[in-house]
Amino acid sequence: MISPVPITVYADNSVYGGIFDPGIDRPSQEFFLQVRQGRFDLVTSNVVEDELALAPERVRRQYEDFLPVSRLVVPSGQAIALQEAYLQAAIVTERWATDALHVALASVHRCKIIVSWNFRPIVHFDKIPLYNA
Questions:
Q1: Distances, alpha carbon 115 to alpha carbons 1, 27, 32, 128, in Å
Q2: For a pLDDT cut of 70, what percent of the chain falls above it?
Q3: b/e per residue 103-116 (b: at least 16 CB within 10 A)
Q4: Cα separation of 73 and 54, whole Å?
């Protein structure tokens, strides 16, 4: 049964491109279908937008197509402080600072789920409990 209240989710750039990648195209398409159906309240950020600036046109278009049904957030002092806390706690290294910012933005904006195909610094099973700590 689908909840009548949409679940707030943050999608990083990998999900927008995922609809064009064999192997993750179907789950990505299903996710965006459920966004359209109102299952998810989609949160994105200007960080995602910046990362997609050099992406292929069809990926940028996918992102732009969902902007009208998304809540666009920007890094606040609170999100940047949380990102810094993740770095200081060595959850990720400076190399993955942008990914830590994605997690911080999702946390600050009370997203229940982070949707990502980035399995190293974001949705890796060893990292999730550390972010939650």
A1: 20, 11, 11, 13
A2: 86
A3: bbbbbbbebeebbb
A4: 20
Position 129 scores a pLDDT of 47
**What token pair was written down for 90?**
């060595």
How far is CA 23 from each of CA 45, 61, 117, rounded to the nearest angstrom? 25, 21, 11
Segment 100-114, tens digit of pLDDT: 999 999 999 999 988
Instruction: Give the other-Cβ count within 10 Å of 20's Cβ.
Output: 15
Specify the length of the chain in residues.
133
Mean pLDDT, residues 18-38 taken together: 94
Task: Report the CATH superfamily, name and number, of domain 7-132.
Answer: 5'-nuclease (3.40.50.1010)
For residue 10, what are the β-bridge partners?
Answer: 43, 114
The rounded distance, in Å, linking the Cα atoms of 41 and 69 is 8
Domain ranges of the chain: 7-132
